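Reply to dn_fold:

You asked what the input looked like. This is it:
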Amino acid sequence: MLKALLGVCCFLLSSAVVAEEKFNADQFYGSTEVLPVSLVQLIATPDKFLNKRIRVRGHFLSAGDSWLYLTSDHAKFRDNKSAINVLDDTETGELYDMECNNGWVDIKGYFLATFRSDRREIEGRLIVDSVYSLNKEKYCWERKKAVPVELLK
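and this is what came back:
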């Protein structure tokens, strides 16, 4: 009886650990609403989407820093005026190493308002929750743990 009870306890504890490995964005952000937005809208009117969950498509390139570009040509020439900055808050640079790097993607995330001190203005950076490859038709990166809360303040 004691062995059976111990086995059940071990199973429940292992299930709890596994459950924490999957990031629940709806619960974390307190909302299920994700606004579909074009990259053109995001670049032209970022203030409309600041501090909101969004879904956006573009050409993703991470090479030291990460950007979502309008086209692969914009990425090739690193035309950052035709892109939004993507924050890789992972400890090991997982967005750089993912198989979607330098490809067409659909990104779900949080468009964080940040202050740019050199221009003294507010701009947005995308905190990624998931990256879906449009070419390979599969998810190539999904957040496993919560965004550091200090980023959202």
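Residues 2-20 form the longest helix (19 residues).
Hope that clears it up.
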